[in-house]
């Protein structure tokens, strides 16, 4: 992306922050959100984040790499396991990066 | 002088506001370790993905939304269309739309500008701590100065922790060799952030579906695979919910 485009994205993201976080503080009098929609929206963030993460971990150079030889996949699983076990984001990132680095060094 | 402008000239009112503000700061303090780490990782990741120092500083100071920023970075790196970046950030931020509905009864009396500001400084931790503390407050106590100043105290603590560490990360990033692959830490941070959100069987079905769709659709142009992953993931989660209820009702 060009410098100008990145700045446009930054300004756009700022608008997204304000719009989503103050949505019902501002529009609350006029609009209510139907129960069903509210319900469905609860699943949206997790779906979006998994949708971002999965290709980063499961693909290597654009093709499926579901093997222990894929450092990103193994590191991601390790970080996930640590997160589930300890609930510590710091530990999860640290162990994940260690696994990622160790596997890349081994492969090289 | 500055304190007088922040908390108001009337000493009695100012004291009440200040006490509530400090209580908010104290309440958020334990969470600032996690917030700070998250900010540091985000700061480093912004630079590692190719943003200039000015852009990274602009992003952290203006956007002020860690998950949306981290979600936007791989898309910026892949030169995805702007609408895809903004749509993704919006979806990642949808939880705040629901939070804002929860906060509305507390901030009704404020002007439009102030409500926009109170919304802007809402964070996951801030919302959770605020609501768990005041959700059972009687209606006549809502909108009280105690509540809004407690909220502002938490917001200030969170903002300072986040921005300090994020700026530190931006300046440290240049000292860290590219060969370390530290930008991958931002993906790991997303992993750590996402897992606690998958807290029910329908959510798990939705997440797995979204992951499979995203991988299968990764080659689609305009990052449409991600858009499809979200839509199909939500549909799968809601279908799973209905199915699980039926199974539960039968047995």
- Succession of helices and strands of chain B: HHHHHHHHHHHHH
**What proportion strand of chain B?**
under 5%
The main sheet of chain A orders its strands as 1-2
Report the total helices of chain A.
Answer: 6
- Biggest sheet layout of chain B: none
Structural class of chain A: mainly alpha
Task: Calculate the mean pLDDT score of chain A and round it.
Answer: 90
What percent of the residues of chain B sit in helical stretches (DSSP H or I)? over 70%
Mass-distribution shape of chain A: elongated
Multimeric state of these chains?
Answer: heterodimer
Number of folding domains of chain B? 2
Count of beta strands of chain A = 2
Based on CA atoms alone, the radius of gyration of chain B comes out at: 21 Å
Largest interface: A-B, 66 and 89 residues
Structural class of chain B: mainly alpha
Description:
The complex is a heterodimer of chains A (108) and B (251). Chain A has 108 residues and is mostly helical. Chain A has 6 helices and 2 strands, in the order ααααββαα. Chain A has a two-stranded antiparallel ribbon with strand order 1-2. Chain A is elongated, with a radius of gyration of 19 Å. With 251 residues, chain B is mainly alpha-helical. Chain B folds into 2 domains: 2-197, no CATH class; 199-251. Chain B is 75% helix and 0% strand. Chain B has helices at residues 2-7, 11-28, 32-48, 53-62, 66-77, 82-92, 94-103, 112-120, 124-134, 145-173, 184-194, 201-216, 224-250. Chain B starts with a helix and ends with a helix. The mean pLDDT of chain B is 88.
Keywords for this structure?
heterodimer, A: about 110 residues, mainly alpha, two-stranded antiparallel sheet, 6 helices, 2 strands, about 75% helix, B: about 250 residues, 2 domains, 13 helices
Outline of the structure:
The complex is a heterodimer of chains A (108) and B (251). Chain A has 108 residues and is mainly alpha-helical. Chain A contains six helices and two strands.
């Amino acid at each position: 992306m060009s410098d100008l485009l990145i700045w446009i994205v930054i300004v756009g993201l700022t608008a997204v922050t304000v719009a989503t976080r103050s949505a019902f503080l501002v529009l609350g009098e006029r609009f209510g959100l139907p129960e069903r929609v509210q319900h469905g929206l609860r699943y949206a963030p997790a779906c979006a984040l998994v949708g971002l993460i999965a290709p980063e971990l499961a693909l290597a150079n654009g093709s499926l790499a579901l093997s222990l030889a894929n450092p990103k996949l193994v590191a991601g699983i390790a970080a996930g396991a640590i997160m589930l076990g300890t609930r510590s984001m710091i530990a999860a990132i640290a162990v994940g990066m260690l696994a990622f680095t160790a596997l890349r060094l081994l492969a090289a | 002088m500055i304190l007088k402008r922040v908390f108001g000239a009337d000493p009695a009112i100012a004291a009440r506001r200040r006490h509530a503000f400090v209580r908010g700061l104290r309440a958020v303090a334990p969470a600032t370790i996690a917030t700070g780490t998250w900010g540091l990782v985000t700061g480093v990741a912004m630079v590692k993905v190719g943003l200039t120092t000015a852009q990274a500083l602009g992003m952290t100071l203006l956007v002020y939304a860690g998950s949306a920023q981290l979600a936007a970075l791989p898309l910026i790196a892949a030169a995805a269309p702007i609408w895809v970046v903004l749509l993704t950030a919006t979806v990642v931020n949808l939880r705040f739309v629901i939070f804002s509905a929860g906060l509305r009864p507390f901030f009704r009396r404020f002007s439009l500008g102030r409500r926009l500001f109170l919304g802007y400084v809402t964070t996951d931790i801030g919302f959770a701590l605020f609501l768990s503390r005041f959700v059972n407050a009687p209606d006549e106590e809502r909108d009280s100065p105690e509540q809004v100043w407690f909220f502002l105290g938490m917001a200030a603590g969170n903002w300072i922790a986040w921005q300090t560490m994020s700026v530190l990360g931006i300046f440290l990033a240049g000292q860290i060799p590219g060969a370390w692959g530290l930008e991958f830490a931002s993906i790991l941070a997303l992993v750590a952030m996402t897992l606690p959100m998958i807290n029910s069987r329908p959510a798990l079905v939705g997440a797995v579906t979204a992951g499979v769709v995203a991988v299968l659709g990764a080659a689609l142009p305009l990052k449409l695979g991600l858009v499809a992953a979200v839509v199909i993931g939500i549909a799968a989660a809601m279908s799973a919910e209905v199915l699980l209820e039926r199974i539960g009702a039968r047995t």
